[in-house]
């Protein structure tokens, strides 16, 4: 998976309206005639797909190719050398230097009106710290990726809001957010026996924005042994950042699992899976769960796990209305981390544009011993793949937000947290005796519950697979949150197998909440 230390660089109606308001700018100037556009990238991708894949060769000298992470960190971009510093546009660009496992350059071009030109590598843009190396050996290197700078947190600042670095990974933040999970252009054969294939963006074209522009357009050409692709990213900075994505893919050959609109995150431990060793941080994760808004309007919440064995969960959905990896719970006390600020890391929500047809939202959970590795992947997998050489078009909007309740309908309810502990039974002497079961606490909150009286006739609809038995369940009104708390005690039959559970709260025949879909991992 991605080396995170290096990469650290229903619908939301209000958010949608703000984005449109920011994007529709009245101007008396004629629209520019660009020399380059999406169709040009698509033609390049189509041509590549007809050719045999050529793996890029490293051009790094030994001192850069064998570089340790601490040395790579010494290479810093000089902010006074930011691209477009001489322009009045609020957008600026900075670049990542090659080094370590970023051993092949990506070509970065500027589109300015009717001209397209490569942005040449310039070593004077970097401060190399105390590194000792032959300057002549690096003069023909290139850039490993780039960052987008924009004054999101204050006028005149150059805040880093977007980064493209490594394979097809990119990350985005809005106002007051800290980098967390990543998006990707494409995932191929994730968690498949033959091993994952990592497509890479080999070339970019970035439109030079005008001074009044509040958006930035980026084109990218993707390449891998079995796929090519053309991408158009339109970045809208704001309190919550939005990226409009248009893509066209071409397969060179069949793949086992095609992952579209993929998201990659990290989950080490949390309330539903406490740390094995004492830790002053109660939770440590970039995302706490997978949320799905299905085409039939069902909402599903799946808390994440750090399993002992690879785990793949699949949710069949036709024409999904959205899915994403969310960081629910914004209180600092949940994380207690002053350095990494997990409470400020955004959720990423994929909002499909148009009908995506039948397929499934896939969740992959990979064991990890620490927070330096991404171990969570979520993506859309279509029910059928295009034939090699035939285009597959997909468009979606990516929201990077800290307003998780705003993703829901105005009159709904959701799972705020899931807690887990050893199950026990109260004895006649009032002492609780562990009985080998697992206790789960699920807190439901939201407008649909707040308007109900404490004695409302709510009931849980509980579904458990054949590997477990519900020994006890209790649903109570929670006056602290004006929601409801469900307490379950579950006895697992075979601990070597995972156990699947589903719960939703109903009032008569009306479902009031999203569906809590939980997997109790094996060997826990």
TrEMBL record:
It comes from the Bacteria. The keyword Acyltransferase does not apply. Keywords: Periplasm, Signal. InterPro entries: Gal_mutarotase_sf_dom (IPR011013), GH-type_carb-bd (IPR014718), Glucan_biosyn_MdoG/MdoD (IPR014438), Glucan_biosyn_MdoG_C (IPR007444), Ig-like_fold (IPR013783), Ig_E-set (IPR014756), MdoG_OpgG (IPR023704). Pathway: Glycan metabolism; osmoregulated periplasmic glucan (OPG) biosynthesis. GO terms for molecular function: carbohydrate binding; catalytic activity. SUPFAM superfamilies: E set domains (SSF81296), Galactose mutarotase-like (SSF74650). It is found in: Periplasm. Residues 36-519 form the Glucan biosynthesis periplasmic MdoG C-terminal domain. One of its GO terms (cellular component) is outer membrane-bounded periplasmic space. GO terms for biological process: beta-glucan biosynthetic process. Involved in the biosynthesis of osmoregulated periplasmic glucans (OPGs). Belongs to the OpgD/OpgG family. This is Glucans biosynthesis protein G. It comes from Azotobacter chroococcum NCIMB 8003. The gene is mdoG.
């Amino acid at each position: 998976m991605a080396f995170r230390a290096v990469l650290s660089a229903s619908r939301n109606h209000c958010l949608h309206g703000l984005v449109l308001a920011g994007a529709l700018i009245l101007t008396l100037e004629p629209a520019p005639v660009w020399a380059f556009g999406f169709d040009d990238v698509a033609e390049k991708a189509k041509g590549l797909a007809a050719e045999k894949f050529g793996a890029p060769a490293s051009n790094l000298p030994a001192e850069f190719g064998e570089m340790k992470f601490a040395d790579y960190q010494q290479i810093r971009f000089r902010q006074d050398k930011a691209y477009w510093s001489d322009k009045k546009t609020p957008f600026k660009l900075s670049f990542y230097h090659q080094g370590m496992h970023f051993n092949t350059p990506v070509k970065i071009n500027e589109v300015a009106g009717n001209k397209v030109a490569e942005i040449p590598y310039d070593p004077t843009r970097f401060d190399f710290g105390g590194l000792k190396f032959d300057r002549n050996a690096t003069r023909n290197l290139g850039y490993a990726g780039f960052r987008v700078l924009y004054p999101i947190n204050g006028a005149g600042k150059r805040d880093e809001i977007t980064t493209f670095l490594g394979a097809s990974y990119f990350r985005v933040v809005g106002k007051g957010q800290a980098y967390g999970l990543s998006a990707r252009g494409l995932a191929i054969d994730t968690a498949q026996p033959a091993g994952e294939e990592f497509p890479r963006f080999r070339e970019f074209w970035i439109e030079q924005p005008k001074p009044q522009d509040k958006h930035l357009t980026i084109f990218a050409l993707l390449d891998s042994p079995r796929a090519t692709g053309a991408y158009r990213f339109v970045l809208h900075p704001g309190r919550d950042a939005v990226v409009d994505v248009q893509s066209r893919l071409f397969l060179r050959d069949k793949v086992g699992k095609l992952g579209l609109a993929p998201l990659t995150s990290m989950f080490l431990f949390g309330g539903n899976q406490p740390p094995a060793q004492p830790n002053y941080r109660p939770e440590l994760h970039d995302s706490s769960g997978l949320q799905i808004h299905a085409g039939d309007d069902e909402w599903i919440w799946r808390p994440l796990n750090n399993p002992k064995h690879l785990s793949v969960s699949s949710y069949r959905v036709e024409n999904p209305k959205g899915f994403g990896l969310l960081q629910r719970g914004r209180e600092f006390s949940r994380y207690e981390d002053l350095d990494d600020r997990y409470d400020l890391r955004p959720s990423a929500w994929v909002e499909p544009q148009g009908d995506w047809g039948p397929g499934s939202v896939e969740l992959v959970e990979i064991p990890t011993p620490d927070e330096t590795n991404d171990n969570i992947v979520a993506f859309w997998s279509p029910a059928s793949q295009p034939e090699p050489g035939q285009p597959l078009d997909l468009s979606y909007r990516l929201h990077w937000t800290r307003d998780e309740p705003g993703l829901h309908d105005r009159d709904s309810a959701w799972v705020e947290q899931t807690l887990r502990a050893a199950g026990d039974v109260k004895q006649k002497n009032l002492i609780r005796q562990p009985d080998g079961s697992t206790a789960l606490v699920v807190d439901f909150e939201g407008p649909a519950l707040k308007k109900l009286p404490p004695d409302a006739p709510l009931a849980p609809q509980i579904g458990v697979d054949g590997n477990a038995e519900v020994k006890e369940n209790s649903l109570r009104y929670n006056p602290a949150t004006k929601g409801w708390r469900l307490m379950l005690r579950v006895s697992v039959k075979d601990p070597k197998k995972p156990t699947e559970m589903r719960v939703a709260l109903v009032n008569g025949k009306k479902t009031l909440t999203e569906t809590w879909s939980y997997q109790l991992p094996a060997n826990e």
